[in-house]
Description:
By secondary structure, the protein is mainly β. Helices cover about 10% and strands about 35% of the residues. The strands form three sheets. A four-stranded antiparallel sheet has the order 2-1-6-7, with no helix packed on it. The protein has a three-stranded antiparallel sheet with strand order 3-4-9, with helices on one face. Strands 5-8 form a two-stranded antiparallel sheet.
Amino acid sequence: MSKGNTFENDLLKLIFNATAIANIADNAASSPLTNLFVSLHTADPGEGGDQTTNEISYTGYARITIARTSGGWTVTNNSVSPAANIDFGQMTAGAGGTVTHFCVGTATSGSGKILYSGTVTPNIVVSNGVIPRLTTASTVTED
């Protein structure tokens, strides 16, 4: 069973922009998340994984905090993308690796819940001096 296009956009706006869906859902929890956290992964974390599953590790890396607002995320045509490029910390030491996936989750560190994940194309080879970047063309589609 699929969702209607209007509801798909509404759902993405609820999650990424904290915009209520009239008569269905709101953001009135006592302490709702005001930010989401983007992580990089060297393999697909899978539907059963968390934000630490296959997460890249190097000196200089940290998850990036993005506000749950229209200033942080752009929702249109059943897809969402960052409103601005997401630049991760420059690799200064460590093993690095090849980034193949990214996740949007609930925690700044540790085993946060994955809300959405997707592939990074082209992959990003991370070595000393590299600053990994997800562009505004990085999208998650609800269908």
